[in-house]
């Protein structure tokens, strides 16, 4: 079933609306009238934007995912076990160190999104990248376990604004049915990080002893320095908003602003912050339902990221071979992720691909909880990695598509990611060494998350279909009665996704 769309104004009607509505959406009053572009010209314009924004954003997230997973890569490398000895990571101390990252990471995501527009994306995103790069570098100098936990907390605070901030930032540029491909390109860096962070850790381990520091210290230091360099580079590359993007011509800026204005609404979105936007996001039923959907994917995603090294380690291979065996599942996942993103935007639907990803996870965890050989379990990890990583961009894009009003969308998406990421904290503690080799508790919890997804995704789809049908019927009745312009443009903007002309993406 494809999404039903409300009639949208023609380009001439859109141009005329600027004169009748004094609100300056996205800086459009400072721009010339938007041009009419052919499909090929529009594709070239979006490629131009992609080439400016996507490489640096993907590189920033690649480093973010590698930095937060560096502790895992070190513990999974036999050559780097000096970390466990030097910092006394006995008992559940390793799990606590992982968990202490997630708590501030989750708590600070919503506040970070609220300040992104005020502090300007071109300053805020590079600024927090430099901040966590410095924290990461300092992590290489810790001397005891309390210092490690403290620096992990600081890392969670510093990184909190990146992922929700970038997704929100992309939603200010791209129409909602071009969004998942861009989130996929951006998040694909995470699966590449999973593929190569272990190999990088193994390579850097040979620096052990240099300047009196063990190999694990050099991993933190070198990754931190690289992050700082990328943050500084990003400050020169990123731009704030379409209307101020100097790499575009005035006509190209005008086209993108108009495309965004009529993407979610016939009159544009509200752009200024008011406290009611916070209340609207916090009381919106779909935000809380989408948080559960998010948890059903992110729990398995972090679970397999934590569990895969344990599977590989049990094969009895050398450290180098074990690190190489972690690469194929992530490579396959990256390819499937891009395929999901492309076809999801093409058919303008999110839910079928989320269900497919959940099905992959169900198959993979069912294999791993069974009493089968390690080779079969390794085969099962391909399903879990592919399902969780490939479905994740769709979950984030789905809520972003269905929230209107820039601040409501920013707050709602930050709530989804912030609260939903607590399932990552759960995943950090469910795989216990005493449960080997079947890990009934860990895999059982992951199957619970998957089950939550199989319940909540259909509920969301049915609710969206019901509301869309009601609005279609109401609009048809209004036209039959000859009612037009029942609401002013300002009232429609304030209603956001509750406006009668808004249709939810399925």
Which helices and strands occur, and which strands form pairs?
Layout: H1 11-20, H2 39-68, H3 70-75, H4 82-86, H5 93-107, H6 109-119, H7 121-139, H8 145-159, H9 162-171, H10 179-204, H11 215-237, H12 250-261, H13 275-282, H14 285-313, H15 319-325, H16 327-347, H17 351-369, H18 374-401, H19 406-420, H20 422-427, H21 440-480, H22 489-495
Helix pairs in contact: 2-10, 2-11, 5-8, 6-7, 6-9, 6-19, 7-8, 7-9, 7-11, 9-19, 10-15, 10-16, 10-18, 13-19, 14-18, 14-19, 14-21, 16-18, 17-18, 17-21
What does this structure look like?
Residues 53-471 form the Major facilitator superfamily (MFS) profile domain. InterPro entries: MFS, MFS_dom, MFS_trans_sf. This is MFS general substrate transporter. It is found in: Membrane. The chain is globular. Residues 1-20 have low confidence and may be disordered. 72% of the residues lie in helices and 0% in strands. By secondary structure, the chain is an all-alpha fold.
Oligomeric state of the chains present here: single chain
Helical content band? over 70%
> Could you name the ranges where pLDDT drops below 50 across 5 or more consecutive residues?
1-20
Question: Which overall shape is indicated by the principal axes computed on the Cα atoms?
Answer: globular
| Gap between N and C termini | 8 Å
How many DSSP E strands?
Answer: 0
Give the structural class. mainly alpha
Strand content: under 5%
Backbone CA Rg: 24 Å
Q: Can you summarize the main beta sheet?
A: none
Count, helices: 22
- N to C succession of SSEs: HHHHHHHHHHHHHHHHHHHHHH
User: Mean pLDDT, as a whole number?
Assistant: 85
């Amino acid at each position: 079933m494809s999404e039903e769309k409300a009639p949208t104004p023609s380009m001439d009607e859109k141009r005329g609306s600027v004169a009748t509505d004094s609100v300056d959406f996205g800086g459009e009053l400072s721009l010339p009238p938007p041009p009419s572009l052919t499909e090929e010209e529009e594709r070239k314009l979006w490629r131009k934007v992609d080439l400016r924004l996507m490489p640096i954003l993907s590189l920033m997230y690649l480093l973010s995912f590698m930095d937060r997973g560096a502790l895992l890569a070190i513990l999974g490398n036999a050559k780097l076990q000096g970390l466990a000895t030097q910092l006394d990571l006995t008992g559940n101390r390793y799990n606590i160190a992982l968990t202490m990252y997630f708590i501030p990471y989750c708590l600070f995501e919503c506040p970070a999104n609220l300040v992104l527009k005020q502090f300007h994306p071109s300053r805020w995103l590079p600024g927090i990248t430099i901040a966590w790069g410095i924290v990461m570098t300092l992590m290489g100098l810790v001397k005891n376990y309390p210092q490690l936990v403290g620096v992990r907390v600081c890392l969670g605070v510093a990184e909190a604004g990146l992922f929700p901030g970038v997704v929100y930032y992309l939603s200010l540029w791209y129409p909602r049915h071009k969004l998942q491909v861009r989130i996929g390109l951006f998040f694909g860096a995470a699966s590449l990080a999973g593929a190569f962070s272990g190999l990088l850790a193994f390579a850097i381990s040979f620096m052990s002893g240099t300047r009196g520091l063990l190999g694990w210290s050099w991993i933190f230091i070198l990754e931190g320095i690289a992050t700082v360099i990328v943050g500084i580079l990003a400050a020169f590359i990123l731009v704030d908003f379409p209307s101020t993007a100097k790499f575009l011509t005035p006509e190209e800026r005008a086209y993108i602003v108009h495309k965004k204005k009529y993407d979610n609404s016939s009159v544009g979105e509200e752009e200024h912050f008011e406290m009611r936007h916070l209340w609207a996001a916090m009381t919106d039923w779909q935000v809380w339902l989408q948080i559960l959907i998010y948890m059903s994917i992110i729990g398995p995603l972090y679970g397999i990221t934590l569990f895969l090294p344990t599977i590989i380690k049990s094969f009895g291979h050398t450290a180098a071979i074990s690190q190489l065996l972690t690469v194929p599942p992530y490579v396959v996942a990256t390819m499937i992720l891009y395929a999901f993103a492309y076809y999801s935007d093409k058919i303008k639907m999110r839910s079928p691909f989320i269900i497919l990803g959940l099905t992959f996870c169900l198959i993979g965890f069912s294999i791993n909880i069974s009493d089968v050989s390690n080779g079969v379990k390794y085969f099962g990890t391909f399903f879990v990695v592919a399902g969780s990583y490939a479905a994740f961009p769709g979950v984030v894009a789905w809520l972003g598509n269905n929230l209107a009003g820039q601040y409501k969308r920013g707050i709602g998406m930050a709530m989804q990611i912030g609260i939903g990421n607590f399932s990552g904290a759960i995943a950090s503690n469910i795989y216990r060494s005493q449960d080997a080799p079947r890990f009934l508790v860990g895999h059982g919890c992951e199957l619970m998350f998957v089950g939550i997804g199989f319940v909540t995704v259909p509920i969301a789809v049915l609710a969206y279909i019901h509301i869309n049908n009601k609005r279609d019927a109401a609009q048809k009745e209004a036209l039959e009665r000859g009612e037009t312009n029942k609401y002013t443009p300002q009232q429609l903007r304030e209603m956001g996704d509750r406006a009668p002309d808004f249709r939810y993406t399925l």
